[in-house]
Write the structure tokens for this entry.
Amino acid sequence: MNVSNRPWRLYRYVIDHDKGFAPNPFFKVCTLACCKPQIRQHAEIGDFIVGYGPAKHGLSGQIIYWMLVDEIINFDAYWRDPRFQNKRPKMGGSLMLSYGDNVYHRHTGSADWIQEPSFHSDPNSLVGKGNLRRDTATTDKVLIGRDYAYWGPNGPRPPSVYSPFVKTGRGHEYAVEDDALKDRFVAWLRGLPDRGLIHDPADWTHDKKIHQMITPKVPAC
């Protein structure tokens, strides 16, 4: 996909469910393939995305991750591409595999989407029609970034000078009046020493059901 001549954008939003699904920060590449259809529809190569933590975990105003979009492909290409086979969900495997985001594809010649059993399925591995509609109705773009940092619940809070770029509440934002401040904010992000996958997703600790899955069972005496 060609790079637009428009100025790059800095998208920011709050991640309500930080399970390693959207975004998926595993296997040395960060992908946004589900949820946030407006960001996926309009973001272009060269844009930055910053996801903040939810208030329910006490992470409001704290950065979960940032990524630089360096590639954009569609669902079918994502499904077929051997580079992203590890991101196909494998339910019942490790949490990292269970929350794979390579979910959607179509049979050749069909316009109907196949939704693989995944976090966006309904119980008993039935198609999650609400999620399918939200994920596919307006765009089939997958945002890919190899320059990223994913902290989960341990991310930094931006210094007060960058408060215009902190997102709380629903929806997303990208408009910024002060381009120089925007440049400095991204320079600050990229100047932090951490890169790639730094910590497990926040919900792996805070979600009781997930926590039970990953907490070692102590044998009874």
In short: Residues 211-221 have pLDDT under 50 and may be disordered. The chain is about 20% helix and 20% strand. The longest helix spans residues 179-191. Residues 10-214 form one domain.
